[in-house]
Design a protein that fits this description.
The complex is a heterodimer.
Chain A lengths: L3 E2 L4 E5 L4 E7 L6 E7 L6 E7 L4 E4 L2 E6 L4 E6 L8 E8 L9 E2 L3 E6 L1
Parallel strand pairs in A: 2-11
Antiparallel strand pairs in A: 1-3, 3-8, 4-5, 4-9, 6-7, 7-8, 9-10, 9-11
Chain B lengths: L4 E3 L2 E4 L5 E6 L6 E7 L5 E8 L2 E5 L6 E5 L5 E5 L8 E8 L10 E2 L3 E5 L1
Parallel strand pairs in B: 2-11
Antiparallel strand pairs in B: 1-3, 3-8, 4-5, 4-9, 5-6, 7-8, 9-10, 9-11
Classes of the chains: A mainly beta, B mainly beta.
Amino acid sequence: DQQVKQNSPSLSVQEGRISILNCDYTNSMFDYFLWYKKYPAEGPTFLISISSIKDKNEDGRFTVFLNKSAKHLSLHIVPSQPGDSAVYFCAASDDDFGNEKLTFGTGTRLTIIP
Amino acid sequence: DSGVTQTPKHLITATGQRVTLRCSPRSGDLSVYWYQQSLDQGLQFLIQYYNGEERAKGNILERFSAQQFPDLHSELNLSSLELGDSALYFCASSVGLFANTGELFFGEGSRLTVL
């Protein structure tokens, strides 16, 4: 049962354009969402997060949007740069106090075309 | 460099065998998490230790076990290996108990191939 879904395995975007990565979830108890970025031969690194009490969080070129009613979040990268080429994982944690684990999606491979 | 060290980076073994994956967390981090990434799968949470104690369990098979030692390094033991156990195994660490702060630091992973 995949509670966090990234339906696009891959995405190609021209350099300088906007990259939009999508993530859907099924567990309504999820209340905190994160994006991790992974380069080949490296572990994932934390990128940006959002709490369920917000609908938007911005950090430089990266913005995460949350639509709780649709159980959908997205990561926008503007403008896209070649160094953004990586696999992006969406992750979520639920409402348990002291939640110790994250549920990850399957990832989207983003390729920025120079 | 995340500061989390995993060994070995690559391991090839046969079905029925037993292997041990090792993880050294970042200096000062008390929590260690193990995740499994199989082909076309997301990162599946296996288990978490905090300061030597098991804290949370995910979809970890009974053939798998883990422990965290007094020096805070952790080992993941995989036994009676099957072809389906072939995967990338990640260790992550954090200062505190909770994964949802985003402050999870991942190692580079150990790629296990079972033939």
